[in-house]
Design goal:
Number of helices: 7
Order of helices and strands: HHHHHHH
Strand content: under 5%
Length: 183
């Protein structure tokens, strides 16, 4: 157990997780800011806010996502960025969960522009994993300095983790289509 704790406190792990979350959040914010009308429609489809608050919330969410992604990228601001990311993930995961409990699954999640990804419990699990990653990225890493080989490892880990994230999202988007073909 002690070895596992030492492993996850290694600065390579915390930097790789922080940088991966930064990429995920910054790309998500970019998609939402690129087409604010589409994102406002996605927020409206959740039917959780009064109509007059939808544009305000649709404008604020990508800005918080952008700030969290930017702050998570650097070790000195990773804790504050992690708090923002956790708050954001908690809010959007709650919105997804409420709509799933209402039976509203045929709306786009709004996760990254118009993705065509319907609401599912897989999104809740994905966001739970992202929150766990944020928690690990926020921790104070062991005090050893990074060397050049560490930076290569961090870069490779970020590429692999982003690839896993994109693949998982695509599988969640395609799952309803695959089930429809089977019927």
């Amino acid at each position: 157990m002690e070895a596992l704790l030492a492993f996850i406190a290694d600065p390579v792990i915390t930097r790789a997780l922080g940088a991966t979350l930064s990429v995920v959040l910054l790309v998500g914010a970019w998609h939402k800011l690129k087409d604010p009308v589409v994102f406002a429609g996605a927020v409206d489809n959740y039917r959780l806010l009064p109509e007059r608050l939808t544009p305000l919330v649709a404008g604020l969410l990508p800005l918080v996502e952008l700030a969290a992604g930017g702050l998570l990228l650097f070790p000195d601001t990773a804790f504050i960025g992690g708090l923002l990311a956790l708050a954001l993930l908690l809010v959007v995961t709650s919105a997804v969960g409420i709509n799933l409990l209402r039976g509203h699954t045929r709306i786009d999640c709004g996760c990254g522009g118009l993705s065509g990804q319907p609401l599912s419990w897989a999104l809740v699990v994905r966001n739970g994993l992202l929150m766990a990653m944020v928690g690990l990225a926020m921790q104070e890493s062991a005090g050893r300095p990074l060397v050049w080989a560490d930076y290569l490892t961090v870069g490779g880990a970020v590429l692999a983790l982003v690839g896993i994230y994109v693949s998982a999202n695509q599988l969640m988007t395609n799952a309803p289509l695959a089930l429809a073909v089977r019927k």
